[in-house]
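re: that complex we talked abt at group meeting.

here r the seqs, copy pasted straight from the sheet so there may be weird spacing, ignore it
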Amino acid sequence: MAEDEPNNGAPGTQAGPYEGPRATDFTPEPDHSDDPGYITRTKFLSTVAIAGGGILTAAILVPVVGFAVTSPLQSEKWRWVDIGPASDFLQNAPPYPNAEPSTKIGEVNSLAVAGADPEADRRIYVMFGLLNPSAKPIPGANESTAAYNKRFAAWAAGLTAADMDLLPIWNRCAHLGCPVAYAPGSQGFICPCHGGAYDSRGLVIGGPPPRPLDRLDVKIVDQSKQYSADQIAKGQDRLTLQQAIATSSNPKVRVQVGKAYSISQEQQAFELHAPGEPVTGTLANLYPFT
Amino acid sequence: MTTKDIGPKNELQKGLDAAADFVDERSGVKTGGRWLLFRNIPAGTSWFQTLGFTAMALFGMQAITGIILAMYYKPDPNTAFGSIAHITNEVTWGWMVRGMHKWGASAMIVIVFLHMGRVFIWGAYKYPRELTWVTGAMLLLLTMFMGLTGYLLVWDQKAYWATVVAVNIFAAAPILGPYIGDILRAGPEFGPDTLSRFYSIHMLIIPGGIATFIGLHLYFIIRLGISEPPWAKRAMRAQKDEEDARRAAARNRKAAIPGSVSFPPAWVGDGQEVSR
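got the structure back, here u go
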């Protein structure tokens, strides 16, 4: 057998016991690569690079996204807007002596005004009409025309300024924001987009709107008198409708509209809501931040 | 016979080949091009599989015509409608480029939906192509949003009120809807900022998003290949084999304990002991 041939323990040969190093003799050096918690140089530098890149990216993105997003979310500023002399809006005011059913009780005016925010060109209808339109007498089934006319005249003669109301109604439909139009024939508002219908006070009488038309705060003031900002804040500059009707020939007596607000079908006031949002009922809870 | 006979004799051809080799050696463009274009496709691939490319070609047309329109369009409430009228009535071929952009937009919506319908009916969204479907769904949303933002730019009554309604639909979403509405219209009311914001979204943000997702969508298609039609013979045979195997397994279970269907017992292989 040659020297370089391995001894495979062939019969008749003696291999002898193995005396070389054995695996069990080694105690392996502790190696950090086995320890998942150990921070190697590579791991450290990767983390620093990712974190540093993240911080730099955020330093760019935060102001940029904030610039695009936060400005539109600021709440709207509002102010009192003068819409004209009271004589323009209080036409055909009570008393109504010798009124016939064809008499216009109050007068409907419509006009465009700049809204609370000068950027926002909001259009409103200013209604001067009955506080309770349903109080108007309707002819009975067997009632003669003469009898009805007599009953109507008696009812109209009893009307005072307290029965009237000056009501600015925003023309933004409460469904999805289309401009509603006043239909004189039906004495109500109709939306051209999806058929929302409202009565003369903006209450829903049909179609998809979830709440009535929004209204604006209104006041009649005599600008020949001076009021401090404190008195204005307390509402001491406001004239009652009776005072305003009595002095409406004075061009210094002006109508002003202010902050817009939403109402429920029961005419209870709420914070201004966007179109599509109900103010009462279960679905009102879907908009907790408005 | 010498080696001079091998290869192109035309000097121009030689030059072009050398230039192509120069670029290919440094960029791998020939390999990449083959990977991109010369793929195996399954039997039964038909004109229906060209709808996706059609949508992409329409996006390309929208991009090119849009870039040209942006040279004449002025995104300001006082000038927007006038500049559209100027493009349509006065600029040479402006009517045509604007028409291509307008009708191309409608065509893109139609083609994208046909493409989606094809993928749905063919069942091509199934494993392993789920992510292709997801990126495609993102492309659908971006395309629809492109339609919304582009519609306002004409700034006529129809565009204005249609967009008011659309944004109010966003704003009527629960909880975060009012914020989305305010961010979209840059405040509580439509105004000059709304128009320039929509213009920016329409021509910068969404095209970038669409290009990104088209890239991902194409990568998935090239990586995974076109799916077979569900009526392909090979696919149907594989399906039949699967079905047969399932039936055989069910038979075995029933044989092990007669009458047991709802609680099949564990069984060993085919139930035959290995012979020694």
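couple things i noticed - Chain B has a mean pLDDT of 89. The first helix of chain B runs from residue 11 to 27.
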